[in-house]
Amino acid sequence: MRRFRATLASLFVTTTLVVAGCSSGSPGGNAAQAGEPVSGGSLTWAVETEPITFNPHQYAQAKTRLLVWNTFEALLTHDDKGGYLPWLATGYEVSPDGRAYTFKLRTDVTFSDGTRFDAAAVKANVDQLLAPNYAPAVAAVQLKNLDKVEVRDAATVVFRLRKPDVLILDFLSSPQGAQISPKSLQEAENLKAGGPQLAGTGPFVLDRYTPGQEVHFTRNPAYNWAPPNAGHSGPAYLDEITYRFLKESSVRVGALTSGQVQLIEGVPATDESLISATPGLSLQRGLNSGSTYSYYFNTAHAPFDDVLVRQAFREALDVPAVLAGVYRKTATRAWSVIGPTSPFYDKSLENTYGANAQKANQLLDQAGWTARDAEGFRTRDGKRLTVRLVQSAPFVRDRRDVLAQAVQAAVKQSAGIDLQVQLVDQGTATKALADGAYELFDNSRADTDAGAALNLMLYSTGSINRTGFKNPQLDKLLDDAVATTDQAGRTELYRKVQQLVITDQALVLPLYAPQDQIAASRSVGGVGFEPTAGVPGSAYRLWLGK
Amino acid sequence: MITAILRRAGAGLLVLWAAATAAYLALLAAPGDTVDAIVGDGADTPGIRAQIIQEWHLDRSAVVQYLDFLLRAAHGDLGRSYLLQRPVSAVIGSQLAPTLKLAVAAAVFGVVLALLFAVTARRLTSTAGLILVSTPPFLIGIILLSIFSFRLGWFPVSGDRGFAALVLPAITLGLPIAGTLAQVLRDGLDRALDEPFAVTARARGLRESGVLIRHALKHALLPAVTMLGWSFGVLIGGTVIVEQVFGRPGLGQVTVQAVNSSDLPVVLAVVILAAAVFVVINTVTDLAYLLIDPRLRRS
C-alpha cells in the first residue's frame, strides 16, 4: 500500500511525484477515472509469485510483500524519506547509548481472532522468532544484536541491544517483525506455513487459500488503526480481494486486457506499449529499495584480484546499451550498489565510469593481459582472460540470464574478455560458490534499509560476501553506520562506503535498479507502491470506482 | 486367479520401491546438499546451517535417512516439505484432484478426437497429427487462450473452477495425444481393411463405414490402447506446462517447485505417486486387452 497522505489533492501530488521519480510511467494517477473513494466491491489481482509461506516471520520473497500487509502489521512503517512513522506503536525513544529502544504501543488494537494486542504480544513474537528451528536467518541477521525484550507495562515494551544497531527499527517495520496473534503462535497447526490459521491485526483477513490457484482476503470490519500515511482511516474500502497466481506474463496481460482481472503486477517490457495503448488501462512503475542488481567481482584470485582488471571490465561494458537491448527503454541504469531511491544513494557516482572501450584496453595492457589468442581473447602468460558467472536457475528473474549473454558479447567485442555464463541448478551454484569456482557473482537485495544489504554483501564476515574482499576500514564504516542513529551521519558514512567500494576498489559493477510494475483498469483507485520498499502496496488503499 | 492378482500387486510394490529408491539416489547424487537447498540465496552462516541440520535431522547418514524414509513411507507417513513447512500428504493431497481431473478430461478429449479423425478423415490424419504432435503444448495453450479467453471471452483464464475452466487446458493437453493416437489408429485401420475378413464383409454387402466401424476398428484399437496407457504418463508430465500457463492448481507446479528447491520429501512422494498411477494404468490396459480381443480371453 502506497500509504499516501489523507487528502485527495495531496494524493494526486504524491502520485505524480512517484511517477516522476521513476524512469517513466503513465502520466498522472488513475484517481481521476476511478473518482472519489467508495466503499464496497471486490477485486481480482493477478500476481506472478505464489508465496512459499503466509507466515510473515518466514518472509523471504519481495514479490509477495504486497500480501503480507493485508493481514499483518508492524510496530512502525517506513515513510518515503528513510524515516519511520507510527503504526502499532505510537512512538519510540532511543536511549543515549543507542542500546535501548522503548516503544509505546496502541491500546485499541485487537487481532482478528479477538486476542488483544499489547506488550506481551510483542514479546511473544520475538520469543517465537528466537525459538530454535523457527527462523534461523532472522535470529542470525536482524536480531543478532538483540539482548532481550522487556514488558514494562501493557502498552510499553523495551528492546535492549548488546550493541547499538539502528537496523532494529528497520526490522520492526519489516514483514519479519510483523505481529502475529500469540494465540495463533501457540495453536496454529502448520505455523511456519501460515495461512488462514494465523491471525493478524491488518485491514483484511486471509480466509481462503487454494494452493496453485489463489488466495482470498475479506475486509476486517473492526480495523481502525491505519498508519498516518495510509491515505485513509477506518476499515478498508474493498469488501474482498482475490489474488490469483498467474506465472506466465503474457497470460497475466491477457487476463487484464480481457477484463478477467482488474490489476496485474509484473508487466514485461515487451507488453508495456500494449498496456499504455489500451484506453481503459494504466501502468505504473516503482523502483525497489535495497541493493541494485550488480555483478560482484571475486577478488580472492586472478584476474579480479587486480583492481585494474576490475576497472577494465567496468569500462568495457556500455551498460545502457545492453540494458536497452534486453529491456528496451524500461530499465533504470544503476551507478551504485545502493538503489537510487535510497536516502543513502550517492548521486555523485553517476557518469564517473563505464562505456570506455579504449580505457578498458589500456587498463588490461597495463595489467599484463597484452597478448591475444586466435579467437581474439586477451591472454597473459599463455592463459586466456576467462571469467565465470554462475547463475542459479531457480533464482534467475527479470531475464537476467539473457542480460548476462548481452554482457558476454559486449565485453568480448570491446576488450577481448571471455565471460562464461553458467546457468545451473541451485546445488551446483552453491558448490561453485563454496569452491570459489567463480569470478563474478550477481545479486540484488530488496532490503528496505540498504545498510542491511551492505552488511551481508560487503562486510568481511558478511554471510553473502562473495567478493572475498576484507577491509578493516570498510568494516568500521559499516559498523559505524548502524551504530549511528541520525540520518545525516549515516548518509555520510554510506557515502564513504560507496566511494571505497565503487570508485576506489571497483568491487562492484552495478547494472540496473530492480523495479515492479502494476497495470490496472482505470476503474480501480488507490493503486500505488509501498513507500521506501517500492513494491506494490497492499489492498488497504484500493477502491473500485463506479 | 488369486495368485495372479497377488503377483501383480507384488510387482506393483516392487516398482514403487524401485522408483522411490532411484529418485532418492538421483537426488543424493545431485550437487549440493539439502542444507544448501534450504538456505537458497538467503543469508548463510554456520549457525543458520546448524539449526537447519538439527530441525530436519540431516546429521544422520544417507543410509539411515533412506531406511527411515522407507519405514515411514510403509506406514503411510511421507514426512514434511522442507520448503512449504507442511505435511507432504497435505501438499500433494490438495493438488491431486485438479491434476487427475485435467488428465482424465484431456485423455477423453484426445480419444474422442482421435476416433473422429481416424474414422471420418483418414487422409487428413497424417498431416494434422504431425502438426499437433510437433506443436509445443505451451504454444497451443497461449494460442487457445488468446482466441477463446482474451478475445472471445468464452472461457475463464485460470483456476480449477468448474467445467468452463477445464475446457481450454484439457484441449491443450489432449491435442498432442489425439495426434499420436489418430496416427496409430489410422495405421491399424489401414492394415485391418486389407485383411481377408474385410473383403468378406464387403462381399456380404456391408457398406464401407460399416466395415470400418464394426470390424476394422476393433483390430485397430489394440495398439491404440497400449498407446493410451503410455500417454497417460505424458499427460501427467504435460500438466506441468499446462498448469503454469492456465494458472491451475495441480501436481505439476508442486513438482517443479520441489525439484528446483531439492525438496526431497515432496519429490519422493510425487515419484511414488506417479509410479503408482503407472502400475494402475498398466493393469487397466491389460484388462482392456481382454475385453477387446476375444482371442486373448481364450488363452
Question: Can you walk me through this structure?
Answer:
The complex is a heterodimer of chains A (546) and B (299). In chain A, helix 10 runs antiparallel to helix 12 and helix 11 runs antiparallel to helix 13. Chain A has two domains: 309 residues, D-Maltodextrin-Binding Protein, domain 2 (3-Layer(aba) Sandwich), CATH 3.40.190; 223 residues, Dipeptide-binding Protein, domain 3 (Roll). In chain A, the strands form seven sheets. Chain A has a seven-stranded mixed β-sheet. Chain A is α+β, with helices and mostly antiparallel strands and 546 residues long. Chain A is globular and about 75 Å long. With 299 residues, chain B is an all-alpha fold. Chain B folds into two domains: 73 residues, no CATH class; 205 residues, MetI-like fold (Orthogonal Bundle). In chain B, 80% of the residues lie in helices and 0% in strands. Chain B has 13 helices and no strands. In chain B, helix 10 packs antiparallel against helix 12. The chains are: A alpha+beta (546), B mainly alpha (299). Chain B: It comes from Actinoplanes siamensis. Chain B: Keywords: Cell membrane, Membrane, Transmembrane, Transmembrane helix, Transport. Chain B: InterPro entries: MetI-like, MetI-like_sf. Chain B: Belongs to the binding-protein-dependent transport system permease family. Chain B: It is a multi-pass membrane protein.
In short:
By secondary structure, chain A is of the alpha+beta class.
Question: Any key phrases for this structure?
Answer:
heterodimer, A: about 550 residues, alpha+beta, D-Maltodextrin-Binding Protein, domain 2, Dipeptide-binding Protein, domain 3, 2 domains, 7-stranded mixed β-sheet, 17 helices, disordered N terminus, B: about 300 residues, mainly alpha, MetI-like fold, 13 helices, about 0% strand, globular
